[in-house]
């Protein structure tokens, strides 16, 4: 596959992959999913109840239909509502910084935290967070931070039914639990895009689902 052959930012994905892995594995409070297919970690109580609620309220203010790179194609692909928070908001900054510190990635490599809200019937179909470097959008993304190496995603509420994060290749379906932070390496230990990270936000059946996501690049993101 061309993505694999070209693999821009491979060395950086490999280097950052190694440092974050070592840091997370050294922390006894962090759980690693028992699979060889992808490096996926979970942290319980990363956010407290008040912090989760504060984000839920912020998401209700900023959420609008989600945008992806190829908007015609994705009309039914990511049906949740999403929005970026005000980067200067001290609360958002402090949580963003807490995630940076946990992973040990340079704050400048992080994209702004994004919030998402799914209502019943809404979902995010199976996808990879890493960029397909043979696509048109890569021409821009390579100039503003390059490949997405790690993802951090927090559940902010209890969902009545549905709305799991399903790692399709790994075969793990994670039920939303408020305050839990999921972290995964989008690359293999060799720095290549990892097909094993394919994942979905399964449809919400009852209730609502709120999450926040922070993606990290291999270089400074502006
Ligand atoms: O909502 C989920 O469970 C998945 C969200 C996701 O995959 C993303 O934001 O990239
Ligand atoms: Fe994703």
In words, what does this structure look like?
With 222 residues, the chain is an alpha+beta fold. It has one domain (2-217): Jelly Rolls. Helix content is 24%, strand content 26%. It is built from five helices and 14 strands. The strands form three sheets. Strands 1-2-11-7-14-5-4-3 form an eight-stranded antiparallel β-sheet, with helices on one face. A four-stranded antiparallel β-sheet has the order 6-12-9-10, with no helix packed on it. The radius of gyration is 16 Å and the shape is globular. The two termini are 29 Å apart. Residues 70-75 have low confidence and may be disordered. 2-oxoglutaric acid binds next to strand 12 and strand 14.
Brief write-up:
The chain is an alpha+beta fold.
